[in-house]
Amino acid sequence: MKEDIREVLINEEQLKNKVMKLGKQISKDYEGESLTVICILKGAVMFMTELIKNIEIPIEIDFMDVSSYGNQTTSSGVVKIIKDLDSSIEGKNILIVEDIIDSGLTLNYLMKILKSRSPKSVEICSLLDKPEGRNVDMEVKYVGFIVPDAFLVGYGLDFAEKYRNLPYIGILKEEIYLS
Ligand SMILES: O=P(O)(O)OC[C@H]1O[C@H](OP(=O)(O)OP(=O)(O)O)[C@H](O)[C@@H]1O
Ligand code: HPA
Ligand SMILES: [Mg+2]
Domain containing 96 — which CATH number? Predict the structure, then answer.
């Protein structure tokens, strides 16, 4: 796996510190409130599990699986729900946890669906934000790192389902996805 990485963009230490900081901020912002954290499968799994360890208020968790990339490095633009939430979100404070916002299509679609289910509030926490990839405008309350326009893998992010278990965020060598 390592030999396919051009450069480590964000190392384990940087990830740990940022996740801690985000967890503290979320704990402060939702103090005295209820909170349901929604993990968007599969990319956000690693980030979400680390993040909730750093949230110091009672929470509920739920999972949703949507997909738009298949085995490509560019979004198909069509977002499919593969697994929906287990519980109703009506009247609840919702925090969507994502690994990356790139074109914005996934989150744009998710926000529309979730807002139509009458939650009390919906906010987004994304570990990475790639502004140069954006096709639709999105407001993201919590962002870990702004990243350059390169295809990234690791810490949950994949290319063709591979590299998710790398403990850092790396830039994938172009020859891997151009070949
Ligand atoms: O802003 P966008 O251009 O929509 O891209 C971001 C989304 O794409 C990736 O998911 P993917 O659909 O590849 O599924 P995965 O999480 O299972 O890898 C990533 O995890 C985000 O959910
Ligand atoms: O840079 C990326 N890497 C992995 N998955 C992604 N989904 C959107 N952008 C990316
Ligand atoms: Mg993916």
Answer: 3.40.50.2020
Q: Looking at the 3D structure of the chain, how many domains does it have?
A: 1
Helix (H) or strand (E) holding 49: helix 45-53
ipTM: 0.97
0.80 exceeded by the pTM? yes
For residue 106, give the ligand nearest its CA: 1
Q: Which residues pair with 64 in a beta bridge?
A: 40
Full domain range(s) for residue 25: 2-178
Separation of 1 CA from ligand 1 center, angstroms?
Answer: 20
> What is the distance between the alpha carbons of residues 56 and 2, in angstroms, rounded to a whole number?
35
Residue 70: pLDDT band by 50, 70, 90 thresholds?
Answer: low
